[in-house]
Amino acid sequence: EFDVAKALKEHLANLEEQKNNIDSLIQNIKLTLLAMEGEYKMADKDRFEALKEEIIKENEAKYGEEIREKYGDETIDASNAKIMGMSEEKYDRFKALEEEIKDRLNVAVDANMNPADEIGKTITQLHKEWLMMTWKTYNAEAHKGLAKMYVFDERFKAYYDDKIEGCAEFLQKAIEHWA
């Protein structure tokens, strides 16, 4: 039986979270404008917090509805919270892993390597480490499902195949084999 009160409470909570996110973004934009006009010296910490918020906002705008539908609000909110809780050092590691994965994929595909070989294992381990920086817990089946999406969703495929076509497919096959 459909619980109207529960649905309204969930909707209200979502709207309040969106309002808080918008209020925070407005504040960051105001501070950025003041800093650009020389009226405010924005601290590195403030810039870094604004950067993380912007990344989350962009991700929500691009994929929010579908990932929330697929994985649930609680999972996505927990992932966003992990990003917001990252130190600069951890965030730098997150971005470095992302680049290392793409670089290794480009090398592997360019050299016509096999995803079932050691290079595939290494890439899968790096990808798992990268995921765990935003995931609450690891699940091999969820990892494999995400990798399938990299091949079938043109946005992800274009991201991984930006330099050499076949990287998304290599990643998917490596994860399928090694996860």
Structure description:
The chain is mostly helical. 80% of the residues lie in helices and 0% in strands. It contains eight helices and no strands. The protein is globular and about 55 Å long.
List keywords for this structure.
179 residues, mainly alpha, 8 helices, globular
Q: Output the helix-strand order.
A: HHHHHHHH
Which structural class is indicated by helix and strand composition? Answer: mainly alpha
Compute the average pLDDT: 90
Estimated share of beta-strand residues: under 5%
What Rg is obtained from the alpha carbons, in whole angstroms?
A: 19 Å
- Global outline: globular
C-alpha termini separation? 39 Å
Number of strands: 0
Helix percent band: over 70%
Poorly predicted ranges: none
How many helical stretches? 8
Sheet with most strands: none
Describe the protein's topology:
Layout: H1 4-36, H2 44-71, H3 73-84, H4 88-110, H5 118-132, H6 140-152, H7 154-160, H8 167-178
Task: Summarize the structure in short.
It is built from eight helices and no strands.
